[in-house]
Design brief:
By secondary structure, this protein is of the alpha/beta class. It is built from eleven helices and eight strands. The protein has an eight-stranded parallel beta barrel, surrounded by eight helices. Helix 6 links the parallel strand 5 and strand 6. Helix 1 packs parallel to helix 3, helix 5 packs parallel to helix 6 and helix 8 runs parallel beside helix 9. The longest helix has 17 residues. Bound molecules: erythose-4-phosphate.
Length: 217
């Protein structure tokens, strides 16, 4: 399983890229608002230059034609741009047009197996089931990820499954266990994945013993 960073915060992306564990980034209009981007295009281009992997940016159009126009313009910003399109009639129509032009689409706001299936049939390169938001309303978000992975495997779809709306490290564990191709994680979750109290204690003890061995303890 690969990890993407789910943020529009350039500093967070810079720090995560240094770790060498991030192969892509996902943004959405709420994250862009939070990050306070002034120049959308150059922010995306900066991120693409840092990440050198898929960077999802979302269209805002409400009809297929506007979505396709927005997507074509954004796709020209960088070879790494992936267009995020929500599940709806217009979105599916736009995906089918864009996939024929080899513009990669990430089907977003996916909350059911049927939606994921439609996205794959329309030609989406990625589908993003929102695990945390399903958990929030009392449904099992990770069970949906597992169902989509099994369905795509069974029918040989090339569409990759991004476990999205990840809220805590256990979501990442579960995403890896059910075979998600990618988990897109907030920066806070990435840092939580690194730490373990036994690692902290172990490092301190090794350091202490090394100092003792050198006669400095
Ligand atoms: C995914 O691509 C979305 O940007 C994101 O995972 C949404 O997460 P949230 O439910 O925490 O807003």
């Amino acid at each position: 399983m690969r990890l993407y960073l789910d943020t529009a915060d350039i500093d967070q992306i810079r720090r995560a890229v240094k770790l060498g564990v991030i192969s892509g980034v996902t943004t959405n209009p709420s994250l862009v608002y939070k990050a306070g981007w002034k120049d959308y295009r150059s922010a995306v281009q900066d991120i693409c230059a840092m990440v050198k992997g898929p960077v999802s940016v979302e269209v805002l159009g409400q009809d297929a034609r506007t979505m396709v126009d927005e997507a074509r313009a954004m796709a020209a910003w960088s070879e790494h741009v992936v267009i995020k399109i929500p599940v709806c009639d217009a979105g599916l129509e736009a995906i089918s047009v864009l996939s024929r032009e080899s513009i990669k689409v990430n089907l977003t706001l996916c909350f059911s197996l049927n939606q994921a299936l439609l996205g794959a049939l329309a030609g989406a390169a990625f589908v993003s089931p929102f695990v945390g938001r399903l958990d929030d309303v009392g449904e099992d978000g990770m069970a949906l990820v597992a169902d989509i992975v099994a369905c795509f495997d069974r029918y040989g779809f090339g569409t990759q499954v991004i476990a999205a709306s990840i809220r805590h490290p256990l979501h990442c564990v579960a995403a890896a266990q059910v075979g998600a191709h990618i988990a897109t994680v907030p920066y806070a979750v990435l840092t939580q994945m690194i730490g373990h109290p036994l690692t902290t204690v172990g490092i301190a003890r090794f350091l202490e013993d090394a100092q003792k061995a050198a006669g400095k303890g």
